[in-house]
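Dear Dr. H.,

I hope your travels went smoothly. While you were away I took the liberty of generating a structure for the chain from your last submission, since the lab meeting agenda had it listed for discussion. I wanted you to have the full record in hand beforehand rather than looking at slides cold. The sequence, exactly as received, is reproduced here:
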Amino acid sequence: MRGWYVICGSCGRKVEHHHSEPPCEVLRGWLTVSCWKGLESVEHYSFCSLSCLQEWVDSHVPKVPEVFLKSFSEEEERT
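The corresponding predicted structure, in token form, is as follows:
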């Protein structure tokens, strides 16, 4: 009997889960993030490690442009 696959949202690693196996055994060490998108709309993301989760978080967090940050050090040098 075929199961379903859980795929890491960062590196793409796959684990097959059979219905006869408890998910807690198959996905030991994996992390799942639930993101509420609206009324009864939830997206679930799975990650095989904390480092993969960190990569995913880093790619989804807006970053302050480096040019903007450097402008502060230039202002300090002028004063």
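Two observations you may find useful: The longest strand covers residues 31-38. The two ends are 72 Å apart (CA to CA).

With kind regards,
E. W.
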